[in-house]
């Protein structure tokens, strides 16, 4: 009995709810084996060297069942790539057997003959014997009886295996290895032990015919935790490894013979060699194989199946052998995929799809159900299958599943597996027949496709049966475990036992067997019903640790296990056949044959690649052409666009020019009226520059010759000519009669309007036109300047003297006339003022004279003046030029003694006379002006008629000048 040793490294029971560790933590059980590899840390199933843990990048992260395999060139099985060679040296695996006879010595089929010489007695009998059964698994399938050499017991009383000591040796890389050459010798067990059998050999030989030889049942005794090394004689127990015998001398005791009995001294490697090595080889050859460990909790099932880093168990050793076989068999190509599930509380979980996050529980997983297929049998779905290409990769995948598996502490095992764990390795293989292809590239494609064989290796670590559990959870788990194990036992008990007892051969086909009572039996249905080679390892512990009650309970469990093993050996009949080779989707495996599917896919992809390459080439050419065309079109468009832009610019320039010309024309028009009609012709404004020039010149030269008579005519012609402003005609008649070409006629269909001229020509023409316009504008500006100057000079001339008759335009002529008259009036007024001053002077003088006369003849004059005429003011100023005549007139007046009033009267009469004679005209308000028929002299001054008094005076004023001059 062992005492449970708590290990903190194992997670608590129940579904994992926290993040799983990065690497599996191996069970740190004390190894009693003599493993050839040194202890290493890290992965449980990873050897220390030679199978160094691969980098993460080498592992398929999440390859699903249908995922394509990695290219073999990178991590290939037969030709590992550089990366793989660095991480896993395929050469570190055992070398292939050199002797060809080894394989040939294997039985061709389980049904090829060979009488079973072993017989299992039921546990109820005191002695239980197993005879050597020729089978696929012991190398005696060919019917040859296996004889055990006498006297080959080891020193501990166990059978020594007849394999040479060097058969399991460390490789150069110090990696563990299993020799592929071992199984023949293992099978060559001495038959002499059969003599020890209490039964007759006839019945034993007959058993091989029913295929029982394809079932290997072994019992392994776990050493005591206390270090007791008395497995051979532990109380009432007797373990005879060499005899494959376990004998119990207590109550219900008896001798139990099995195919293999392993003592506490046997290590995992030896166990593997005897229970699984041959089976693994058969699986590689196309048979289905199932290995499972059965036993009470804590007896070493997991230890045997998984092992430790220092003592790898069945699973890692099987993996090593699988790849060794692949390396040894270059004539075939292989594809491996692996799945890992557990049955926990009667529910199936995919251990490879377990979420690793702490927050993600198992409950989120999709429920996996068991389905049945005529070709595949019973299988779990959906289940993740990962394609593996190296032992390390495969080990890592399984280690990942191990981490996800539920474990808990039980009474007998601190890290008890609380679920049934099933590793399934599907092996697809196909014959490689070199075809016509040559060269390394075509090496694979040149292979003629053969049929694909599909076989499955199932490695099952059952949960341990437990009588009593402390917690409710443990009890629940335990009840499920016990129920499923009980169902397994029942099924096995009924497999052939019923047939033997009741003679119902029909029971074998499963119709009446309770496979469906548990997930475990349902999943094992194929193996139990004979489709698979089967190897059962039952683990027991016969130590006497603990109390008497515990010991008794333990003994009962151990006996149950032994009975189970005996029934399994006795009842399970395997008719395993090599899997048929399937071509394409037909045959065994059907669509599951990935190798064929991949081959077809590769072919299809290749053809697609070729087609795509061709179409791509054509497409590329077309695209290139299209792109060239597009570039060409884009260039053309760009050129067109540029041309349009240029045209637009030119148009704008032209418009601007036109506007400017019009503007200038308007300016010129307003200042050129002098030149207009100077010769009686129309204005040439808006016409050719030369015409303007002519007009301006004409205007300039004729300024001084304009007669006053033609003022009204000019005004009229000006109005007429202004109507021609802005008109564009092809030609204009100048005042000189010359025909001028049109300057700017956009409506005309000239060189640019016919649309036939090239763009360049148009461009040049337009540029020439533009230059011409510029010149024209410059000329116009000059002319305008000249015209302004001329205009201002003419205006000054026109304003210089009244009556000169120079008119500027219509408005100027009118205003000039008015101005002339106004100036005349002003002049007359000035003269009149002179006359008035003269008159006033005359009066003053007259008054002075009157005063002098009065002094001389005061008495008489005074009397006469006072009586006849009122006194009037006498002029004080002497008359200027006309003074002599005035003096004469005054003296005359004096002489005549006339008064001033009389003189004024006389002047008025004189003016009246002039008016009547038509020399002057009297206005409405009494003003007077000279009549229009006056003539001007050469200087432009009006010439007064000798007989006309030229004066302007207001009514009531008189001027004596005319009379005086006359
Ligand atoms: N042959 C052996 N040599 C040395 N140690 C062993 C052997 N068999 C089992 N042990 C140790 O016993 C303990 C329990 O073993 P293991 O977990 O394999 O038992 P189990 O049958 O798988 O139990 P459970 O059914 O509860 O999972 C482990 O610590 C293991 O190392």
Automatic annotation (TrEMBL):
Gene Ontology cellular-component terms for this entry are: microtubule
The record ties this protein, via InterPro entries, to: Kinesin-like_fam (IPR027640), Kinesin_motor_CS (IPR019821), Kinesin_motor_dom (IPR001752), Kinesin_motor_dom_sf (IPR036961), P-loop_NTPase (IPR027417)
Main subcellular localization, coarse class? cytoplasm
One Pfam family from the record: Kinesin
Kinesin motor domain location is 214-571
The answer to whether keyword Nucleotide-binding applies is: yes
Indicate, by first and last residue, each region the UniProt record lists as having compositional bias (Low complexity). Answer: 31-46, 160-182, 714-733
Q: Where does ATP bind?
A: 295-302
Please note every region of biased composition (Polar residues): 54-76, 122-138, 190-204, 949-966
Keyword set includes Thylakoid: no
For the region Disordered, give the residue spans: 1-215, 705-756, 918-966
Which domain of life, per UniProt? Answer: Eukaryota
Which SUPFAM superfamilies has this protein been placed in?
Answer: P-loop containing nucleoside triphosphate hydrolases
Compartmental location: Cytoplasm, Cytoskeleton
Q: Which GO terms describe its biological process?
A: cell division; microtubule-based movement
Q: Name one GO molecular function term.
A: microtubule binding
Q: Which residues form a coiled coil?
A: 595-651, 818-845
Q: Which UniProt keywords apply?
A: ATP-binding, Cell cycle, Cell division, Coiled coil, Cytoplasm, Cytoskeleton, Microtubule, Mitosis, Motor protein, Nucleotide-binding
Task: Give a short account of what the protein does.
Answer: Required for assembly of the mitotic spindle.
> Which family does the record assign?
Belongs to the TRAFAC class myosin-kinesin ATPase superfamily. Kinesin family.
Q: What is this protein called?
A: Kinesin-like protein
């Amino acid at each position: 009995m062992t005492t449970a040793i708590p290990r903190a490294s194992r997670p608590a029971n129940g579904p994992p709810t926290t993040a799983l560790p990065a690497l599996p933590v191996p069970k740190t059980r004390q190894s009693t084996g003599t493993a050839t590899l040194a202890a290493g840390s890290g992965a449980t199933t990873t050897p220390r060297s030679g199978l160094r843990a691969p980098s993460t990048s080498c592992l398929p992260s999440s390859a699903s069942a249908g995922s394509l395999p990695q290219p073999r060139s990178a991590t290939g099985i037969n030709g590992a790539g550089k990366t793989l060679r660095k991480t896993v040296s395929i050469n570190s695996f055992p070398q292939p057997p050199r002797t060809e006879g080894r394989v040939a010595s294997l039985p061709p089929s389980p049904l090829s003959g060979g009488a079973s010489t072993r017989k299992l007695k039921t546990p109820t009998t005191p002695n239980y014997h197993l005879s050597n059964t020729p089978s696929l698994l012991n190398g005696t399938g060919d019917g040859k009886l296996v004889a055990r050499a006498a006297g080959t017991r080891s020193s501990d009383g166990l059978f020594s295996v007849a394999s040479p000591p060097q058969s399991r040796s460390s490789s150069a890389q110090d990696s563990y290895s299993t020799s592929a050459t071992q199984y023949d010798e293992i099978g060559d067990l001495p038959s002499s032990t059969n003599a020890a059998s209490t039964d007759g050999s006839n019945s034993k030989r007959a058993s091989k015919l029913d295929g029982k030889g394809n079932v290997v049942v072994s019992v392994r005794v776990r050493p005591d935790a206390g270090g007791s090394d008395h497995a051979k004689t532990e109380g009432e127990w007797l373990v005879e490894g060499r005899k494959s015998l376990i004998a119990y001398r207590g109550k219900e005791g008896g001798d139990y013979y099995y195919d293999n009995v392993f003592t506490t001294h046997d290590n995992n490697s030896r166990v593997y060699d005897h229970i699984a090595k041959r089976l693994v080889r058969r699986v590689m050859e196309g048979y289905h194989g199932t290995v499972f460990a059965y036993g009470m909790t804590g007896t070493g099932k997991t230890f045997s199946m998984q092992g430790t880093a220092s003592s790898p168990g069945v699973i890692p050793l099987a993996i090593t052998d699988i790849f060794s076989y692949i390396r040894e068999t270059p004539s075939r190509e292989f594809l491996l995929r692996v799945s890992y599930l557990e049955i926990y509380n009667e529910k199936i979980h995919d251990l490879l799809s377990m979420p690793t996050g702490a927050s993600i529980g198992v409950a989120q997983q999709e429920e996996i159900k068991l389905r049945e297929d005529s070709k595949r049998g019973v299988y779990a779905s959906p289940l993740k299958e990962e394609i593996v290409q190296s032992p390390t990769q495969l080990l890592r995948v399984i280690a990942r599943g191990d981490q996800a598996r539920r474990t808990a502490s039980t009474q007998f095992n601190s890290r008890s597996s609380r679920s049934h764990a099933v590793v399934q390795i599907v092996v697809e293989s196909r014959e490689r027949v070199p075809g016509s292809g040559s060269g390394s590239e075509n090496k694979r494609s040149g292979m003629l496709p053969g049929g694909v064989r599909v076989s499955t290796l199932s490695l099952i670590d059952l949960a341990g049966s437990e009588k009593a559990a402390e917690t409710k959870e443990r009890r629940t788990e335990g009840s499920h475990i016990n129920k499923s194990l009980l169902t397994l036992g029942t099924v096995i008990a009924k497999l052939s036992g019923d047939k033997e007892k009741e003679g119902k051969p029909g029971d074998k086909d499963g119709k009446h067997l309770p496979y469906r009572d548990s997930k475990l039996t349902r999943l094992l249905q194929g193996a139990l019903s004979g489709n698979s080679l089967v190897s059962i390892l039952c683990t027991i512990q016969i130590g006497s640790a603990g109390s008497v009650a515990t010991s008794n309970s333990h003994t009962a469990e151990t006996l149950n296990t032994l009975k189970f093993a005996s029934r399994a050996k006795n009842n399970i009949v395997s008719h395993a056949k090599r899997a048929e080779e399937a071509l394409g989707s037909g045959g065994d495996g059907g669509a599951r044959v990935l190798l064929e599917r991949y081959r077809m896919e590769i072919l299809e992809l290749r053809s697609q690649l070729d087609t795509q390459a061709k179409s791509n080439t054509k497409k590329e050419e077309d695209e290139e052409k299209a792109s060239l065309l597009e570039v060409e079109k884009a260039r053309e468009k760009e050129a067109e666009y540029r041309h349009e832009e240029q045209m637009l610019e030119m148009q704008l320039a032209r418009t601007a020019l036109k506007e400017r010309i019009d503007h200038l024309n308007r300016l010129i028009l307003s200042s050129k009226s002098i030149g207009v009609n100077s010769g009686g012709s129309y204005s040439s404004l808006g016409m050719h520059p030369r015409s303007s020039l002519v007009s301006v010149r004409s205007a300039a030269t004729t300024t001084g010759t304009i007669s006053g008579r033609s003022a009204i005519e000019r005004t009229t012609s000006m109005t007429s000519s202004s109507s021609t402003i802005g008109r564009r005609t092809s030609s204009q008649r100048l005042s000189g009669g010359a025909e001028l070409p049109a300057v700017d006629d956009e409506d005309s269909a000239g060189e640019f309007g016919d649309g036939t001229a090239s763009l360049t020509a148009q461009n040049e023409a337009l540029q020439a036109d533009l230059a011409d316009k510029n010149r024209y504008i410059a000329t116009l500006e000059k002319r305008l300047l000249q015209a302004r100057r001329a205009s201002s000079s003419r205006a000054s001339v026109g304003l210089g003297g009244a009556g000169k008759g120079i008119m500027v335009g219509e408005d100027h002529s009118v205003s000039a006339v008015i101005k002339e008259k106004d100036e005349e009036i002003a002049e007359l007024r000035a003269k009149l003022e002179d006359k008035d001053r003269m008159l006033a002077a005359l009066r003053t003088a007259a008054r002075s004279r009157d005063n002098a006369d009065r002094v001389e003849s005061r008495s008489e004059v005074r009397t006469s003046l006072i009586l006849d005429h009122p006194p009037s003011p006498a002029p004080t100023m002497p008359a200027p030029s006309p003074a002599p005549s005035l003096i004469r007139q005054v003296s005359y007046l004096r002489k005549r003694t006339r008064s001033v009033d009389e003189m004024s009267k006389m002047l008025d009469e004189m003016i009246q006379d002039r008016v009547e004679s038509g020399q002057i005209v009297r206005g409405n308000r009494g003003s007077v002006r000279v009549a229009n028929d006056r003539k001007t002299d050469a200087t432009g001054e009006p010439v007064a008629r000798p007989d006309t008094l030229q004066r302007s005076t207001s009514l009531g004023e008189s001027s004596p000048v005319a009379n005086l001059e006359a």
